[in-house]
Automatic annotation (TrEMBL):
Signal peptide: none
Protein name: Transglutaminase family protein
Cross-referenced Gene3D superfamilies: 3.10.620.30
InterPro entries noted in UniProt: Papain-like_cys_pep_sf (IPR038765), Transglutaminase-like (IPR002931)
Domain Transglutaminase-like: 39-136
UniProt cross-references to PANTHER family, sorted A to Z: BLR5614 PROTEIN-RELATED, CONSERVED INTEGRAL MEMBRANE PROTEIN
Length: 199
């Protein structure tokens, strides 16, 4: 699949906004600690990915009812759904000057029912010719997402026969449908009812 930058200016994928608030002290502190432990862009990106994947619980797995959407809040609460965890990873990458985009999939249950939009991240390391998608959702039995730039190792490879879709667009800011669902939901049960079913 050919990934498509929504904004041709690579600097758009380094910007901060209300959700990807990489100027926030907690984001900066976390990014600096990870960089100090690694020291180069590839090692840092892998460490940031594994930090978000492994130390921030996906609230559907943990049962946490709180809804976080700002990167800084995700890091503070160590909780979030896929969109929120993607905001946190994008913020950590951008905090160290690594372009990061938000991207999405439409997924379903195994029988094709209950479609929902899933969020992930694309990264473009210095010197790389292409973007690489990575999924910080969090692993569990049946889900084994990995940091890989040459071959995708996503949490959920799409099944076109069930109507699942990889959206090729690389967003510099959260998609409004995803952000609205997060911001308008008082708790995770309400968020589940508000999740977009398509983009």
């Amino acid at each position: 699949m050919q990934l498509i930058q929504q904004n041709p200016d690579i600097h758009a994928y380094l910007a901060s906004d209300e959700a990807i608030d990489h100027w926030h002290p907690l984001v900066q502190e976390t990014a600096d600690a990870l960089w100090f432990a690694t020291g180069d862009a590839y090692s840092y990106a892998k460490a940031a990915f594994e930090f978000v994947r492994d130390t921030i619980a996906h609230s559907a797995d943990s049962g946490d009812p709180r809804v976080s959407w700002r990167a800084s809040d995700v890091l503070a609460t160590r909780n979030g759904i896929c969109y929120a965890k993607s905001h946190a990873l994008a913020a950590l990458l951008r905090a160290q000057g690594i372009p990061a985009a938000l991207c999405y999939q439409r997924l379903t249950e195994d029988d094709g029912s209950d479609p929902a939009v899933h969020g992930l991240v694309a990264v473009r390391l210095p010197g790389a010719a292409n973007w690489s998608r990575i999924d910080p959702r969090g692993n569990k039995p049946g889900v084994d997402a990995r940091f890989s730039l040459d071959r995708e190792r996503l949490a959920f490879p799409v099944r076109p026969e069930l109507g699942e879709v990889d959206y090729p667009e690389l967003h510099a800011a959260p998609h409004p449908a995803a952000l609205t669902a997060l911001q308008s939901s008082a708790d995770r049960p309400e968020l589940w009812r508000n999740l977009p079913t398509a983009l």
